[in-house]
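User: Quick sanity check before I run a bigger batch. Here is a single chain. Can you write out its predicted 3D structure?
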Amino acid sequence: MPVNKRKVAARKGANSLKAKEEKPVKAKEQEVAVPAEDAEESEDSEASEESADEESGSEEVEAKDESADESEKEEQDESSESESSERGEKRKAEDELEEAKPKKTLKIDVTAPHGSSGFTIFIGSIDFTATEAEISEVFGKCGKIAAIRLSKAAVDPTRNKGTCYIDFEDKAGHDAALKLNGTELKGRPMRVDHAEPLKKEPLSTPSNILFVANLPFQSTEEEIEGTFSQYGEVVSCTLLTFGPDRKSKGLAYVEYTDKESAAKAIKELENAHVSSRPLRIDYAGPRGSNKIQKREPKFSKGKDFKKDGNFNKKNSNFKNAKGAKKAW
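Assistant: Done. Predicted structure follows.
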């Protein structure tokens, strides 16, 4: 069969045109596909960038919050430190003010013990309302008085206990005063006699604790501690009391940090008087010890006394004015 060359050529031309037309379409499709992929990639990158920005922003916010918390904490610490330092300074100032404040002390009068000069007289049976000025006026005519010690009543310091010691500067005044024995003062005759020097009792074994006796009943622990703290550091001061009202017994214990301070206090207050009452100071034993010794009775034991020192009323020969035994 003969080939039609014209038809073949026409068919080839149509195929070539179709191929040419398909190529731009595919290229356009590829171009469209590529931008879409690029857009997706760009969207992903933008999203990642946004998330990174958000993360960095959140990190910056957190860092700022942390720095703010730290600064606030530092400010609080600084404020608390400043407050504590202010409180410490205030407390220190109060302590210094308390230390600078004068302590209450006993009114100490240090005089020579009665009879030490050899020109001392003892006066008894004095009217309880008599004063030192009134007694001095009577006995001052005898000679120059060196010291006068009128015993004061414990309950009422305005009243005396009826006894007094007067030290004269010479023998002439002493002898002239003895001649006033029986002289009345406020309607009451006085008893005047020579006063022998007091015997100095030996001290106990040295320790850092002192026993103080014959204190005025109005004395307080604060006054006692203030007085004895002048000779060393006082650890404690205890005033002995009795009864529900805690009335003073006139006795106290003073504890120092060392024995040297206690010895100094005894030396300085050896002849101390408070309200005309001579202080008696001695070393005390350690805490919990009992230094009180049993004293012998001042009376002589006879047949009318039992072994325990009590008076035997049953066997007593004491009789009343009618000759019969007194009924007990």
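The first helix runs from residue 5 to 100.

User: Great, the batch can go ahead then.
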